Amino acid sequence: MESIDSKPRVSAGESSSAAAENVVFLTWKDLWVTVNNGKNGRSILQGLTGFARPGELLAIMGPSGCGKSTLLNALAGRLDPQTRQVGDILINGHKQTMAYGTSAYVTQDDALIHTLTVSESVYYSAQLRLPDTMSRSEKKERAEMTIREMGLQNAMNTRVGGWGAKGLSGGEKRRLSICIEILARPKLLFLDEPTSGLDSAASYHVIRKIASLNQRDGVRRTIIASIHQPSSEVFHLFHNLFLLSAGQTVYFGALSAANQFFASNGFPCPTLQNPSDHFLKTINKDFDKVRCFLETTS
Ligand SMILES: Nc1ncnc2c1ncn2[C@@H]1O[C@H](COP(=O)(O)OP(=O)(O)OP(=O)(O)O)[C@@H](O)[C@H]1O
Hints:
It is built from 10 helices and 9 strands. It is an alpha/beta fold. The chain folds into 2 domains: 203 residues, P-loop containing nucleotide triphosphate hydrolases (Rossmann fold), CATH 3.40.50.300; 75 residues, no CATH class. A hairpin with a 2-residue loop joins strand 8 and strand 9. Helix 5 runs parallel beside helix 6. The chain is globular. The relative contact order is 0.18. The structure holds adenosine-5'-triphosphate (ATP). The site of adenosine-5'-triphosphate has 15 residues, from strand 1 and helix 2.
């Protein structure tokens, strides 16, 4: 089976120039994550290598249970204590801990207070999260700017809402959660399934807002999101793809080269089919073929 090089290389100067520019170039090398369940350890991630660049969005995709959240948590330093991690995770080429506010993690569940409005949620978070070196009015200004960046200006006075009290839509809640996490202008943003539970239009709106953040405020963020079955429009908002199956890398590289990679390995994407559906179907359906595919490409 023919294979192409799915592992793009990091150019020598990229990590050091990211450090000079005060952005984050995240690299992981031969990353293993094992969980201890009784007598035997089970490898959830098996020797993953990749990177995420400033100014780009990386999608982590794969079938349910393949290890997407585990990879995201390992990169964010949020693995739970029962797991063991081996391998290197480097920031701008070095092993280092990130300063407060450098990175943010948006979880799948929106941890919002139902009785607050959008503006109250963001203003209060700004007062609590932003450094004391910022004045009250600077914090308020930052909160307003961030609300606009996430396209929530028309819902400023809408309550979050919950059971029995309708408030924000699911997509608006997700954008509010992101809004709160990006208040401190993190250079590295992790999102765990930011579109889960949303319809395709709301998903597109959420990811488009995330994708446009870098253009709007000029901060070249490094953005990594795990994502389930994105529509074609959502899929094409990402720059790079990390495709996993059973804890192993199926593909890592530019999104634009993934079709060619699958085609040259005997799995061309049918015309008019959403490529992300095709990739996930291929991994799920042809399990034995994919095992052989993994062996040839690793
Ligand atoms: N702490 C843990 N203890 C035991 N097993 C774990 C633990 N964390 C993850 N796993 C197992 O590792 C595998 C990968 O889990 P993970 O949540 O990373 O998958 P996922 O791709 O994010 O799944 P989904 O798309 O369904 O959310 C699963 O089989 C899960 O049961």
